[in-house]
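Changelog-linked ticket: zinc ion example.
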Amino acid sequence: MQRRKPIRVTIAGNEWTVRRARLKRVYGYCDHAKREIVIDAATAPDIQWQTLIHEAMHASAPDLSEDAILRIEADIVAVLRGCGDWFGAARGTDARPSNRPRQPNTQSPAK
Ligand SMILES: [Zn+2]
């Protein structure tokens, strides 16, 4: 997917930047120090979308464990997929669970 300009969003009352970049070894990460979410631009849009949900939860609730976030992410993704036709989005079906780890709630970008 092509890169686009970073966007500014409000998460938990703070302004965050969301951008895409080529990442290695992770689909995305959440940098609390920079208030930035970065999503791997090289993955399928469906994976980017799911990763964005995951990383936004890290940004919103840094106290949640990785297991809790993964559990909630799975539920949200299932609900959005079920309702996908309502919005003309979230139709991707190629969202196999990945072995590629997301960087756990981290302070520094992946190498
Ligand atoms: Zn995570």
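Closing comment: Example verified and attached. The helical segments are 45-60, 66-82, 84-87. Confidence is low (pLDDT under 50) at residues 90-97, 107-111.
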